[in-house]
Each structure stands twice: as C-alpha cells, then as structure tokens.
Specification:
The protein is 36% helix and 22% strand. By secondary structure, the chain is of the alpha/beta class. The chain has a domain at 377-508. One of its GO terms (cellular component) is cytoplasm. Pfam families: GH3, GH3_C, GH3_M. Residues 297-363 form the GH3 middle domain.
C-alpha cells in the first residue's frame, strides 16, 4: 500500500481545503503598505518619502506618482551599486546575503540582483503554495512518494565580498527545506557541479538509481538533459528510465514551442504545470488543470503594477518612458498585453522585470507570459510580440509536420530594404523559401499591423533552417549553459551579425 503517499496527498488536500483564496486587491494593498513601512528608513525610502506616501488617502496612486520606473541598469547606476559595494539600508534594510546572477538574454555580463532573506522566504512560501495546488490535479497517491528532478543552475555558490552569488535556481535549491532533501534530485553533490555538460553526464550515469516522478526546469535545457539520459541508456523514451514520471513543472519561458519535440521523448503523456520564477522573485504558478495560465502570488512580498504594452510607451532599448501610465490589479483587463512592474522584499522598486503578460482571468489574477519588452519587433511598424511569433510557428509546425522548438530573428536590410530574417531550429526537407512564404501568409492573416507593414516598408521574409542544437551551443558560447539562460528571440542588427558568423562557423565545422 502506498501509505506514505496517501498521507502526503491527504495532508495537501486538507491544507488546500482549509486555505481560503486571498482577496487579491486587498492582498496587494497590504503588501505595498508593508513594503513601504519596512523600507521607510532606507535611503531610497527617505528620498521618495515613503512615510508621507503611507499617510495619503490612496497609497497605491501616491506611490505611482512619487516613485519613477527603474529598469535594472537604472537601479544599478542610481542605487544598487552601493548595495553591491556593501552599504546597508540602501533600498532595503540591512544588506543581502545573496546576489542572483542573471545574464538574461541580452549580453555576456551578468546582472547582480540582491536576494534578501525575506525573498528567500517568499520563494520558499511560493513553492509550498505550488505544492499545495497539486491537490487540484488528478494525481495518484503514489506520485507523492516519487523523487523530483530539479534541473537548475549549480548550487555551488561563489563567495564574494561577504555575499554568496549564483543563479536564482541555484540559490533556491541550496535553501530547500530539510524535509524535502530526500525527494530532491540530482542531489547536492551533482547539483554543485558548475560545468553543465559534466553535470548532465553525471545525471545520465545515475538516472536508473532514481525513481523520478516530476521534472522542474527551463524547457530547452530539460529537453537536452532528457535526450542525454535516453542516449546514454540506449532507450526509446525517458519512460524506459523513469516509468513513474507524471509531471513536468516548466518555468521561465512559454512551453508551447517545445511541446511537440518534448512529447516525442515520452512514452506516455504527462501533466505540464507552468511556473514563473524570475531572478527577482517567484511571480506566479499554475493553480488548476483547466488552464495553462498562472495565478499571480498577490500576498507574498511582491507588489505588481502594469503598463499597457503599446509602442508609444516603450523606448528603443525596451525600457519604459517615464510618462507611460501604470495601473493596478484593480484596473486590468483581459486581451491586453502589459509590461509587468514589481516592487519586492529585495528592494526592487517599480522595477521593469522585462516581461510582458496578459490576463486570462482578472478575478483569479491569472496571467500568461506573452513575451519580452526587448523582443518586441516593431521595425517599420510590424508590431510582432513573441506570443504572436510563437503562434505563427505553431501553425507552420502543423502545416508541414515539423518541430520548431527554437528560433530567432532580426530586421535586416537587403539592398537597403527591410526584411525579417528568421532562423528556425528544425530538421526538414521543406525548402527555406516555401517556409518563408507560408510564415509570411500566417503573419499577415493574424496580425493587422504586420500586414500593413508588408504593404509598405517591410519587403519580405527570409528563412534559414539550422539544427536545434545550434541554439544551445550559441547560448553556451555567450554565457553559461543551463540554469536560467534563455535564447534571445529578437536580435539587434549588430547581435544578429554575431549570430550569423557563429552559425556559419558552427555548421561548417
């Protein structure tokens, strides 16, 4: 009998039944007030008058009017460089024990994002909420006895100037509760291996020793790990190695582009659950199986604001114009892309996290990630967001029976005329010009702005197909493999030139 699993499942179900849904609007009001009270005596809080904001009749409105928007570089130059230098009480009381390193998708130099003890607790609390939400999914009691493969970055954090540094997945894994250690794989020893290829090799070697029931990690790197395990054991699918695998917790990027190729690694369907854990905090998680949307965590140390994602509010570098209007959770609507702003217990204030989201259910505060502000392709008015690119490629996959888990593109000039040059990660005998014509037609059909641009300055599409592995090798050459590293979907002309040189050299070799 699966006694332990039944007990755990029963406890989760009971906890879920006893936990009431927070009033999201009240919760956000309380979070903001608590953030302002806690940070009122910091240098940041004094400069922007947090005490006077708290005395106003409308704290949320006053906060928005008194505190400007900050992207990472603005916050670093004006405030966080002092935190990194060891000063205390700058944007949050005291000094953080950790810094999350995040090179994101835009360069080789890592960002250093403060991670306070309060943020560690916030992330842990959000993780528990997600575990509790498993009671809403139809999982057998035996599932709750299985092990969880968490494929993040290395937990071998580096000490620097009295702080520990690493990617947020490594920081989180190094702070897992003691009671969870028995379920956590690949375990501390392997998780500390810094070299991604060597770490995955050790996972492959040990894979048959584990009874994995769930996976957690970014889809692109998870796929590569599963392929390595399957290849190492000369298996047909990952279920030959882990027959009890039933759940995959995806995070950080949309799963849809990877769904087809991911499913080809499985013998049986598994439950895919989306999460939204960023270097700046645990933002949202999928709470129920009826939707792939995720619920914002509104009562856990993160205050949210939203700016309509419209070209007139966005600078060329993806940052917000200071006169762009922001709204609260009480004012959002469905079917509208928003730039997400967060203020957190790590001392981020009206921080442009870089993602765009849409609400699928306002009452439940459920969202989907639709793209990145820097991945918005608006050269000559085409107004292509990542979700529109993804949707178009899903149609191309179906039309030609392809798998296209990876892509990137740029607006390039050919004979002084603008074209969109797409690189698609796929193996196919379909000729590039056929794919280009089909993709162009799909985009014109589904995007009015793109259709208008195609009748004016945007002269056409060019498609180049390359092996999907080219994208992971590019990411490895730019930064580190694995962890939180994500492929840039839209590149500047300068970066695209680097990409094309890399592709040319990589494929020729």
């Amino acid at each position: 009998m699966e006694i332990i699993g039944s007990i755990i499942k029963g406890a989760i179900n009971l906890k879920g039944a006893l936990t009431s849904e927070p009033n999201h609007l009240d919760a956000q009001q309380k979070v903001l007030e608590q953030l302002l009270k806690t940070a009122s005596e910091t240098d940041f809080g004094k400069k922007y008058g947090f005490e006077s904001i708290l005395k106003s009749k409308d704290v949320q409105k006053e906060f928005a009017s008194k505190v400007p928007y900050f992207d990472y570089h603005q916050l670093l130059e004006q405030w966080w460089h002092r935190v990194i230098d060891g000063e205390e009480n700058v944007t949050w009381p005291g000094s953080p024990d950790y810094f999350a390193l995040s090179s994101g998708t835009t360069g080789k130099k890592s960002k250093r994002i403060p991670v306070t003890n309060e943020m560690i607790e916030s992330i842990r609390s959000a993780g528990i909420k997600q575990v509790e939400a498993l009671s809403n999914f139809d999982l057998p009691a035996s599932f709750f006895e299985k092990e969880i493969m968490m494929l993040g970055s290395s937990t071998d954090l580096q000490e620097k100037d009295g702080h520990l540094e690493g990617e947020i997945s490594g920081i989180s894994a190094s702070n897992i509760p003691f009671w969870f250690e028995g379920f956590y794989k690949p375990g501390k020893e392997i998780a500390q291996i810094d070299d991604w290829d060597r770490r995955v090799q050790r996972i492959a070697e040990k894979a048959k020793d584990w009874d994995i029931g769930a996976l957690s990690g970014i889809p692109s790197w998870m796929e590569l790990m599963l392929q390595k395990v399957i290849e190492y054991h000369n298996a047909e699918t990952i279920h030959d190695i882990w027959p009890n695998l039933q759940v995959y917790t995806s995070g950080g990027v949309a799963f849809a582009p990877y769904e087809k190729s991911f499913n080809n690694l499985l013998e049986d369907p598994i439950t895919v659950i989306d999460t939204y854990l960023a270097s700046e905090g645990f933002i949202a998680y999928q709470e129920r199986p009826e939707t792939d949307a995720m619920k914002l965590i509104t009562d856990n140390g993160v205050y949210f604001e939203f700016v309509p994602f419209q070209s007139e509010f966005i600078n060329q570098d993806g940052s917000l114009k200071q006169d762009a209007p922001s709204i609260t959770l009480a004012e959002v609507k469905t079917d509208q892309d928003y730039v997400l702003l967060i203020s957190t217990v790590s001392g981020a204030w009206r921080y442009i996290i870089g993602d765009t989201i849409e609400f699928t259910d306002v009452a439940r505060a459920e969202i989907r990630i639709t793209g990145r502000t820097k991945f918005f392709l608006n050269v000559v008015g085409s107004q292509l967001s990542v979700n529109k690119m993804n949707a178009a490629l899903r149609e191309i996959e179906e039309k030609f029976d392809l798998e296209i888990p990876e892509f990137t593109l740029s607006a390039t000039r050919i004979n002084d005329e603008f074209h969109h040059h797409w690189y698609l990660g796929t193996e196919t005998s379909v000729e590039n010009f056929v794919l280009a014509e089909a993709l162009d037609e799909v985009l014109k059909k589904t995007n009015k702005n793109y259709k208008v641009a195609r009748n004016k300055a945007l002269k056409g599409i060019k498609v180049t197909t390359v092996p999907s592995s080219t994208f992971s090798e590019w990411s490895g050459s730019q930064k580190k493999k694995g962890g939180q590293v994500k492929m840039e979907r839209v590149m500047s002309e300068e970066k695209f030139a680097e990409w094309e040189a890399f592709v040319s050299e990589n494929i020729s070799n």
